[in-house]
Specification:
Shape: globular
Number of helices: 21
Number of domains: 3
Low-confidence stretches: none
Helix content: 40-55%
Radius of gyration: 24 Å
Structural class: alpha/beta
Distance between the termini: 56 Å
CATH superfamily of the largest domain: HUPs
CATH architecture of the largest domain: 3-Layer(aba) Sandwich
Oligomer: single chain
Strand order of the largest sheet: 1-6-5-2-3-4
CATH topology of the largest domain: Rossmann fold
Length: about 400
């Protein structure tokens, strides 16, 4: 089985143009492909994870990835799948986010000589002359076709700004520049990007002729990615400062039973023969499959040592043996504990709740415990003496933080 057939087998491909050419290029290791990342935050999150895994798979098969940082498109914001206008970031914020992305991507992709490259579309988009761009790209885009694009449907209902409307032209121009400057012959992206991706292929063909070999675009399915990476407190980040390795492990350990096989297929490098065997598992064996998934992904993102620590911490807690040294902890400062700390504040400080409103609901619903005792009073204040015993603060059945005095 070639790598293209494996992508199909794992459910990664939703749509594709020129399938015969794509298959041949990918399987022979001749694809120079790109995936774009708009730096809208200071960390990649689980929603990006599928794309990173795909890049790694294709690179392992000899293909060359181009990681395109959206230093230019990030100044506009992709309207795909949105009903509101994205927050407009400053150039400084965008450049800072790109620096964070670069560091995190290097854990997945080999950027050594000839293996992969990282490019910033801000290099050509930020200083683009408007009149020259309109003359060069504008004649090749039909407004009628653009308005029918799925990526604009939701925004049209609530008001689509010209800023967002121009995004398709920018993404199409990206592919054209990558083709011209780096020999890029393929683009991968989420299925909500299909119209934007076709724009790039069509622009290259119209400007350079139908025989241009950048006519191959494969689409990475995005439906599953949209579901991944969201919790009650927000996104699941790849940056350990934003989502600890333990919390990252626990996120995957707690996925729905129905999603275990899907996640193993889309995100791990476990052979399909083993995954098909795990598909048959039920009950306790299904929990074992979740543990395998959690360890595999934590190891991929944070390394073997952190994955082992997270696994050991989870086992010690759920076996009832108490908190281990590897359980996430929160150190209270003198200012925070001088007069004691109330339960709502403590839940927010430790990251177990995103807000006091959410913390209040957690307590009222009976989901919070302190030092093994359920907390039912939203006004409960823990004294310095109680906090000094390094108690365990718990939300729900599987979220813990050790308080360090």
């Amino acid at each position: 089985m070639g790598v293209y057939e494996e992508l199909q087998d794992r459910g990664l491909i939703a749509q594709v143009t020129d399938e015969k050419e794509v298959r041949e290029m990918v399987n022979s290791g001749k694809a120079i492909f790109y995936i774009g990342f708009d730096p809208t935050a200071d960390s990649l999150h689980v929603g990006h994870f599928m794309a990173l895994c795909l890049m790694k798979r294709l690179q392992m098969a000899g293909n060359r990835p181009i990681a395109l940082m959206g230093g230019g498109t990030g100044m506009i914001g992709d309207p795909s799948g949105r009903t509101d206008l994205r927050k407009v970031l400053t150039v400084e914020e965008i450049d800072s986010n790109i620096a964070c992305f670069k560091e995190q991507m290097s854990r997945f992709i080999d950027f050594s000589e000839g293996k992969a490259i990282m490019v910033n579309n801000g290099d050509w988009l930020r200083n683009l002359n408007l009149m020259e761009f309109l003359r060069e790209a504008g004649p090749h885009f039909s407004v009628n076709e653009m308005l029918r694009a799925r990526c604009y449907v939701n925004r049209l209902a609530n008001g689509l700004s010209f800023l967002e409307f121009s995004y398709m032209l920018m993404q199409g121009y990206d592919f054209y520049r990558l083709y011209e400057d780096y020999g890029c012959n393929m683009e991968f992206g989420g299925d909500d990007q299909w119209s934007n991706m076709l724009a790039g292929t069509e622009l290259i063909r119209k400007k350079l002729g139908k025989d241009a070999h950048a006519m191959t675009i494969t689409l990475l399915t995005n439906k599953e990615g949209k579901k991944m990476g969201k919790t009650a407190s927000g996104a699941v980040w790849l940056d350990p400062k934003k989502t600890s390795p333990y919390d990252f492990y626990q996120y995957w350990r707690n996925v729905d039973d129905a999603d275990v096989g899907k996640c193993l297929r889309l995100l791990t490098f476990i052979p399909m023969e083993e995954i098909r065997e795990m598909d048959k598992w039920e009950g306790a064996e299904l929990n074992k499959a979740k543990a395998i998934l959690a360890f595999h992904l934590t190891e991929l993102v944070h390394g073997t040592e952190e994955a082992k620590k997270a696994e050991e911490a989870a086992k010690s807690l759920f076996a009832g043996s108490g908190a281990s040294a590897n359980v996430p902890s929160y150190t209270l400062s003198k200012e925070e504990y001088a007069d004691g700390v109330d339960v709502l504040t403590l839940l927010v400080l430790t990251g177990l709740a995103p807000s006091k409103g959410e913390a209040r609901r957690n307590v009222q619903q009976g989901g919070v415990s302190f030092a093994g005792e359920k907390v039912t009073d939203i006004g409960r204040v823990f004294s310095p003496e109680e906090l000094s015993k390094e108690p365990l603060l718990q939300k729900g059945k599987k979220s813990f933080v050790k308080i360090v005095f």
